[in-house]
Amino acid sequence: MAILQVTQYGDEILKKKTEVVKKVDRSVLELINNMFDTMHNADGIGIAANQVGSNKSIFVIDLSEVKGYEKQPKLICINPKIAERSAETVVMEEGCLSLPGLHVEVERPKAIKLLYQDLELKDQAIEADGYLARVIQHELDHLLGFLAVDRVAEDKKKELKSSLSSIKNRQVDVDYPVTDKTK
Questions:
Q1: Which of 120, 139, 154, 159 is the catalytic position?
Q2: Is 139 among the catalytic positions?
Q3: Helix, strand, or coil here: 28?
Q4: φ and ψ at residue 31, rounded to 5 degrees
Q5: Over the stretch 161-178, which tens digit does the pLDDT of each residue have?
Q6: What are the residues whose beta carbons fall under 8 Å from the beta carbon of 148, sequence distance 6 or more?
Q7: CB 87 within 8 A of CB 66
Q8: Per-residue DSSP letters for 62-124?
């Protein structure tokens, strides 16, 4: 198990759609374990594979440290996709390990139904609402090549330009390893 570097705003891999996982082998299991270690080390609650430099369609979530979600089991989602979205939406502030120090208001469906595969590549489904639904949608966005800042209005994004430039140029202090700005 290892703590991996977290990709940052500006890294190309964050803009690319990830690839379907066709086989769960030792390297995929090691990646998943490393994703949990990396996420916990950075005090995160979710992380997508492309946030640690992998192009695999996987994200993991652990909300056990979040009040009200202490009993929520850890989630490992392989090849996830949203099957249903509620018409009702909620605006909430989001942070991201790939956007350190930045928090943006993002509107998302309040509830979703997620289809995904487990470690045996067996089809699974979960219905989620509230905070869990938000975190799932945030992580799935990563796998589709989107960041939270891609979900805000253009005028707001212009206001964030200086902060985004600082992140891209690695001028934001973080207490977890991140990729070089040349990646």
A1: 139
A2: yes
A3: helix
A4: -60, -50
A5: 999 999 999 999 999 999
A6: 94, 95, 96, 99, 104, 106, 138, 141
A7: no
A8: --TTSTT-TTPPPEEEEEEEEEEE-S-EEEEEE--TTSTT--EEEEEESEEEEEEE-TT--EE
